[in-house]
Design a protein that fits this description.
The chain contains 17 helices and 17 strands. The protein is of the alpha/beta class and about 400 residues long. It folds into two domains: about 250 residues, Rossmann fold (3-Layer(aba) Sandwich), CATH 3.40.50.300; about 120 residues, CBS-domain, CATH 3.10.580.10. The strands form four sheets. Strands 6-7-8-3-9-10 form a six-stranded mixed sheet, sandwiched between helices. A four-stranded antiparallel sheet has the order 2-1-4-5, covered by helices on one side. The protein has a four-stranded mixed sheet with strand order 11-12-13-14.
């Protein structure tokens, strides 16, 4: 969709902002450009819509050299979102969003109808927010309007220059979540500029780590964090890149423990015998449909107390509710957060409504180690064997 061929931008004072840059962005791919201020990432992005003209090289958009396109028409075909949003203060939210469709010749009614659809898509009810003016919105709401306006002409390409950088961390995370939801539906081709490696890791299909006018590494977030290609990349992503990697490493079936399983309506004595034979101190409790209900301790099954002590007890009488669960594919960072939030020793992992196993802190650590080794050795993660300390 976008191809850079030996692109250089050199200014009259001799400053080289971008130096012999060549890379491709596939259709529907989101690439984050990350690096310190002045490294050339914003210059790279602005050359796509000709806000900055390259000194040498070519940029192709869907096979067409952008230098051959009328710059005004080119920009109307490319969505553009910036940190300051750039909304027209004298226009309502609805009219701001309808600006580009109207410029492209759509009738005002059709343009406003499209704008209303997009406001709803980014989580702003047009009946509530459509007639408001930008100064009546919060910073996060203005950013949503900026995204809606960029999408209004249904452009195949979005250029986003630190769009969430001016809002507080809580709003920023919410905007990132909303944008990921939109991207999963719309599949736009996106260049996303940020100085924040955590944002780059969270959003990007691939990350371009910029040095001084050059890309030091262009790869998946997991590879950039797990196997930095250069000392510069390793220093930029940080010594805590292992922790950052938790955000891009999903829980897989091979990561799970499989403790014994009993059913809610099983007799307690039978369940106790099964756990005794297995040597297990506890079991996961499933309901009649196979969904996780909770857990039960072996000693509780062997010696029921309370109302169940004087009769034929079932597992239901003795089971404790499940503390927490996560879906298969959940990022390890979210799984770890859930473990800590619930002060739990393990989490049930579900595939839809189906129970698949449990994730423990030790298994979570092993999953991260296997993922890092898999990237370094080009092996499937499930095939990576880990060295362990004897006796552990």
């Amino acid at each position: 969709m976008i191809r850079f061929e030996h692109v250089t931008k050199r200014y009259a004072d001799g400053t080289t902002a971008v130096d012999d840059l060549s890379f491709e962005v596939a259709e529907g791919e989101l690439i984050t450009l990350v690096g310190p201020s002045g490294c050339g990432k914003t210059t790279t992005m602005k050359m796509v819509n000709r806000l900055i003209e390259p000194t040498d090289g070519r940029i192709l958009l869907d096979g067409e050299d952008v230098a051959d396109a009328d710059p005004v028409e080119l920009r109307r075909r490319i969505g553009y979102v910036i940190q300051q949003v750039g909304l027209f203060p004298h226009k309502t939210v609805l009219d701001n969003t309808a600006t580009v469709p109207h410029l492209l010749g759509r009738p005002r009614k059709a343009a406003r109808a499209r704008a209303a659809e997009l406001l709803d898509l980014v989580g702003l009810d047009p009946a509530v927010y459509g007639d408001r003016y930008p100064d009546q919105l919060s910073g996060g709401q203005r950013q949503r309007v900026g995204v809606a306006r960029a999408l209004a002409a249904d452009p195949p390409v979005l250029l986003m220059d630190e769009p969430f950088g001016a809002v507080d961390p809580v709003v920023r995370e919410h905007l990132q979540n909303e944008f990921l939801r939109l991207q999963s539906t719309l599949h736009k081709t996106v260049l996303f500029v940020t100085h924040d490696i955590e944002e780059a890791v969270r959003l990007g299909d691939r990350i371009a780590v910029y040095g001084s006018g050059r890309i030091e590494q262009l790869d998946t977030p997991a590879t950039v964090l797990g196997a930095p290609a250069t000392p510069y990349t390793a220093e930029f992503v940080g010594a805590d890149r292992g922790l950052k990697r938790l955000a891009v490493t999903p829980v897989e079936a091979a990561d799970l423990d499989e403790p014994p399983v009993v059913r809610l309506d099983d007799p307690a004595a039978r369940a106790a015998d099964a756990l005794s034979a297995d040597g297990a101190p506890w079991a996961v409790v499933l309901d009649a449909d196979g969904a996780p209900y909770g857990w039960v301790a072996a000693d509780a099954l062997a010696a029921p107390e309370g109302p169940a002590a004087g009769r034929s007890a079932t597992v239901r009488d003795l089971a404790r509710p499940m503390a927490a669960s996560v879906p298969l594919g959940t990022p390890l960072r979210q799984a770890l957060s859930t473990l800590l939030q619930h002060d739990a020793g393990w989490l049930a992992v579900l595939d839809g409504d189906r129970y698949r196993g449990v994730l423990t802190p030790a298994r979570l650590h092993g999953a991260l180690r296997r993922a890092t080794t898999a990237d370094a050795t080009d092996l499937p993660r499930a095939e990576v064997a880990l060295d362990t300390v004897p006796g552990t």
